[in-house]
Amino acid sequence: MTDVFRAESLGKTYPGVRANEDVSFSVAPGEIHALLGENGAGKSTLVKMIYGLVKPDDGHMTLMGSVHAPADPRAARAAGVAMVFQHFSLFDALTVAENIALGMENPPKSRELSQRIAELSQSYGLPLNPARRVASLSAGERQRVEILRCLLQSPRLLIMDEPTSVLTPQEAEILFATLRQLAAGGTAILYISHKLDEIRSHCDRATILRHGRVVNTVDPRAHTARELAAMMVGAEMRVIDRSGRKPGAEVLRVAGLATASDGMALKDVALTLRAGEILGIGGVAGNGQEELLSALSGEIATRPGTITLDGVDLSRTPPEARRKAGLLAAPEDRLGHAAVPEFSLAENTLLTAGSRQGLIRGGLIDHSAAQAFAQAVIAAFDVRTPGPQTAAGALSGGNLQKFVIGREVLGKPRVLVVNQPTWGVDAGAAAQVRQALLDLAAKGAGIIVISQDLDELLELSDRFCALNDGRLSAPRPTEGLSIDEIGLMLGGAHGMEVAHVPA
Amino acid sequence: MIDPIAVFILLLGAATPILFAALGELVTERAGVLNLGVEGMMIGGALAGFAAAHATGSPALGFAAAAIAGVVLSMIFAALTQFLLSNQVATGLALTLFGLGLTAMFGKPYEGVKAPTMMAGPLGLNPMIWLGLLMVPAVWWGLNRSRPGLILRAVGENHDAAHALGYPVRAVRIAAIAFGGAMAGMGGAYISIATVLQWTEGMTAGAGWIALAIVVFAQWNPWGVLAGAWLFGGVTVLQLRLQAAGVAVPVQLLTMAPYLATIIVLVLISARQKYGRSGGGSAPGSLGKPFHALR
To answer: What sections of the protein cross the membrane (chain B) (predicted)?
Structure first.
């Protein structure tokens, strides 16, 4: 049987990042083919190339035996490629029919289109009213709109980018039934996910990507979730010495924490943190990490009783008062969130350390004290910069990260929450930042590290939990936790049962 | 004392410049672009239209020239905001100031010159009044029933999604900005060629700002724009009549009335939006946000 789609030695470089390198794989008719990989493994770039949103630097693609080099998504659609996006693809203010018409090259008249939508949605068991506004639909219904938009074009290759990340389990089952039906009709399906369970139960083949390269193409049914996780995250395992750190009394308690934000809402998050302990929170970005940090730092107020520090309820306390109480936070976004790019380093210290360090007295800024504190941070954390008067935006990412972390660490927090402390930081600086966090914990502070870097979490944390779809898993001691067990926790296998089932 | 039919006919004339400008701005905003330079494009159209009509003796050519002048001015805005990604609010304000200043300078030779007379259209009304009225259903149909209108709304609603589907966000927006410019230019020319019949510095007198307010007031709906333009035109005509009739109200207050009425209606609608069922309102989702495609 000839392949529907074939990629040969695809490569793509973004400034500073090699997103894909020598990627080759093929998809057969009627096959559900999984693209498996961690966040940042290059899955998205790869499918963007197939869909014509990004042009490959090297290699070539073939679709139905002829060269596939779409100039834009319309060309890709005309060639028979359809894609269901994870984000950014529906128009809230428009109706279902209008949204579907926008995804078609030559849509029929609106009445005829509505009729076809109704027919098709019936035959695939995906009921939808064409006249409804998308804004009023649930996540599952929105996805139906996207799928119908693709189905109306009778695609040869259907790409699905993490389609179940927004679905309830019941909705996911309906989706898989639809995909099976489509595959039986000969459509090739490229299915992107990092959820091992659903790939093992629904996909025919899986191509595994790591750091932009194809690691392997396997039959997922012939492998355990453990083996797939090892291929996905890499089996390299570090030996970590965590001896000598003794957790003290409980300092922070979070219970029933929920947010109703625009992004990923947190759902019933609970955790406790002891003095001298580092709690690692792993998970794919966009699963509630930013919301968790915002809720803890005070940017989002939550229900009373959800966040208590040393027995004092801080749930409705604004950020500055939380800092005074000893709860400090360092957000992921260095420029704009953690620091003002146009301000000097000295001025940036005022943003979070102003009251804790006595840099503001009687409503006036003590500039010499701010200078001195900035200088202290620079010295203690080896920030490479001409001096405290340098604008924060002029520092390299790694240096600014050291400064931001240093500003909070020198603030002698009771509890420090950091998100992605070493994101985009070179190895040397990352080691410094991690060491500083370990030292801080040794002095008795409780630390929450939110990160996507599993090695980092294993190196730092005493206990580990995963944030998935706004829910926080129960923490497990990091000691004795293997990287494939972590891979399973992140992949959303609830509980750890799957890992213990013999293959 | 006041004949309702005569008042209505005068109202149509007074509403026309705002109707043109507001319909143009509505299309621009539905594409997600906030162009605050309406006043500048109107005054540019007023002068260019007047000059062309005076030179050729043809008001029709005058309106054509006004449309072109509006497009040229709007393209300055388009170049700055769509290619150089400048701030739309600041750029729009600058365009208004630029238009006012430029016309003050080049308008000097036309002061005290009289415009050629226009032929009346059906029912004795100015043809541009008819064109303006026809533009209301045309814009409504174009936005809500045609494929280009659907794409334009999609671009204004969510430019990232439109880009992901392969629609040329920037090109659609530039076209919408150009349409807004042409309409504003013709609206301005109506004031100089058909109403006042001469050129005066700053003669648009804030009509562009009223047009901007009316777009919001109309909830980005062409029929609402018509209602808004008639309200403003109606109050204008009424206060002129009252002035002429010598009502014992200070002239300043009467002159203020149309602007005051616009503000009051705007506040009422915003209040209804805030406390009423509709909540979020119907502003295009990407209005005023710069779009930059990452390739």
So the answer is: 31-53, 60-83, 89-107, 119-143, 174-197, 209-232, 244-269
Q: How far apart are CA A450 and CA B197, in angstroms?
A: 70
Q: Between chains, do A91 and B295 touch, taking CB under 8 Å as contact?
A: no
Whether A185 and A312 map to the same domain: the answer is no
Give B164's contacts in chain A (Cβ within 8 Å).
53, 73, 85, 88-89
Q: Is A239 inside a domain boundary?
A: no
For residue range B75-114, what is the model confidence (pLDDT) as tens digits?
A: 999 999 999 999 999 999 999 999 999 999 999 999 888 8
ipTM of the complex: 0.78
Question: In terms of domains, do A406 and A279 share one?
Answer: yes
Of B154, B282, B295, the CB nearest to A91: B154
Match 């790019």 to its residue by tokens: A341
**Domain around A355:** 250-481
User: Is residue A171, in this structure, part of any structural domain at all?
Assistant: yes
| Inter-chain residue contact B157 with A73, CB threshold 8 Å | no
List of chain A residues whose C-beta atoms are within 8 Å of the C-beta of residue B220: none
CA distances in angstroms from B106 to A212, B46, B47, B102, B111, listed in the order given = 61, 12, 8, 6, 10
d(CA B113, CA B199): 7
* Same domain? A33 vs A118: yes
CATH number for position A411: 3.40.50.300
DSSP readout, A50-110? HTTSS--SEEEEEETTEEE--SSHHHHHHHTEEEE-SSS---TTSBHHHHHHHT-SS---H
How many domains, in total, are found in chain A? 2
**One-letter identity of residue A76:** A
Q: Does CATH number 1.10.3470.10 belong to domain B10-275?
A: yes
| Domain identity same for A346 and A474 | yes
Per-domain residue ranges for chain B? 10-275
Helix (H) or strand (E) holding A304: none
Which residue numbers in chain A have pLDDT < 70? 1, 16-17, 38-40, 86-88, 139, 165-170, 194, 233-245, 261-263, 285, 396, 424-429, 483-484, 487, 491-503
**Which run of H or E residues covers position A400?**
helix A397-409
> Is A266 found in the same domain as A171?
no
Burial (0-12, 13-18, 19+ Cβ within 10 Å), B242: middle
